[in-house]
């Protein structure tokens, strides 16, 4: 199942800079692993925002929730999920 996911990140200012840096390093490692596994085939930055638009390919809503909640930045995210279905006019 494909999902369009928008992730907006807002890290509180009172978190120490070295902690934030460690979280970002862990986030990149987890995102890379999910991309290499084929679960996160598309990841785009939203220009001018600390935000991304992604296409995730998972088997179920439960798997999507597990994947998203496994992200180190998850506690600092507002996430919007849109399930996707094949368009009848699509040739792909």
Automatic annotation (TrEMBL):
Signal peptide: none annotated. Pfam families: MIase (PF02426). This is Muconolactone Delta-isomerase. It catalyses: (S)-muconolactone = (4,5-dihydro-5-oxofuran-2-yl)-acetate. Keywords: Aromatic hydrocarbons catabolism, Isomerase. Residues 1-89 form the Muconolactone isomerase domain. Gene3D superfamilies: Dimeric alpha+beta barrel. Homodecamer. InterPro entries: Dimeric_a/b-barrel, MLI_dom, Muconolactone_d_Isoase. GO terms for molecular function: muconolactone delta-isomerase activity. Pathway: Aromatic compound metabolism; beta-ketoadipate pathway; 5-oxo-4,5-dihydro-2-furylacetate from catechol: step 3/3. GO terms for biological process: beta-ketoadipate pathway.
């Amino acid at each position: 199942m494909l999902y369009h996911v928008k992730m907006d990140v807002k890290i509180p200012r009172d978190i120490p800079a070295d902690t934030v840096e460690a979280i970002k390093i862990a986030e990149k490692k987890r995102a890379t692993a999910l991309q290499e596994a084929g679960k996160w085939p598309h990841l785009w930055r939203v220009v001018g925002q600390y935000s991304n638009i992604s296409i995730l390919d998972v088997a179920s809503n439960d798997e999507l929730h597990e994947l998203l909640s496994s992200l180190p930045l998850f506690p600092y995210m507002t996430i919007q999920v849109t399930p996707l279905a094949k368009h009848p006019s699509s040739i792909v």
